[in-house]
Design a protein that fits this description.
By secondary structure, the chain is mainly α. It contains eight helices and two strands; from the N terminus they run ααααααββαα. The protein folds into two domains: about 40 residues, no CATH class; about 130 residues, Protein of unknown function DUF5063 (Four Helix Bundle (Hemerythrin (Met), subunit A)).
Length: about 190
């Protein structure tokens, strides 16, 4: 790879790291290992959460290309590869209600091409008991956004460790499932 091709990459990495440009050897390493780059850029969950919420809840009301939503969901998944954190044993209040119906309304206007889709409901060990069910892409996105708004509240009102725990826990138990179902639906629809 020629130096002129790597220079824009070095500048991009520097911008995300908010530091001086890495040396060429480091930049090439990061360039060829996207997971390392993603982990370096997403050491804090605050930036990817804020970016995703801004993208989804943008008030311009213009229709969004579903390809951009696919990219944003992918970036959000990368953010779940958290650095280690210590569990915060303190008790904190719960976040306020994030008004699911208002979120749905905003998403419906911003993403009018989203709607219902077919998916399956089954336990991996019981393939014979599989049922075809209807999924709702608007509801999936609203649930993801609602959980991320809660994590954002924890970031602003508790500790980083507590917020990271809620981010990981809610991903593994709730919004991660909605994200994967939505990704599958969008992948089939987009391609």
């Amino acid at each position: 790879m020629r130096r002129r091709h790597i220079t824009p990459f070095i500048q991009k990495v520097s911008k995300h790291l908010k530091t001086k440009a890495p040396d060429l050897k480091t930049a090439i390493f990061l360039f060829f290992d996207p997971l390392i780059l993603a982990l370096v850029i997403n050491m804090s969950i605050e930036q990817p959460i804020q970016h995703f919420l801004s993208f989804c809840l943008d008030e311009r009301k213009e229709k969004v290309d579903l390809g951009n939503l696919i990219e944003e969901l992918d970036r959000l998944v990368v953010a779940t590869y958290l650095p280690e954190f210590e569990f915060d044993e303190n008790e904190y209040p719960e976040p306020p209600d994030n008004e699911h119906l208002n979120i749905r309304e905003t998403i419906s206007e911003r993403f009018p091409d989203l709607g219902f889709y077919c998916t399956v409901d089954c336990e991996p060990e019981s393939i014979g008991d599989t049922n075809v069910v209807t999924g709702d892409a608007i509801d999936d996105l609203a649930d993801i956004i609602g959980d991320l708004m809660n994590v954002q509240w924890y970031l602003e009102n508790t500790t980083l460790s507590n917020a990271m725990w809620h981010f990981e826990f809610s991903y593994r138990t709730h919004w991660g499932f909605h994200l994967r179902e939505l990704q599958r639906f969008l992948h089939i629809r987009w391609w």
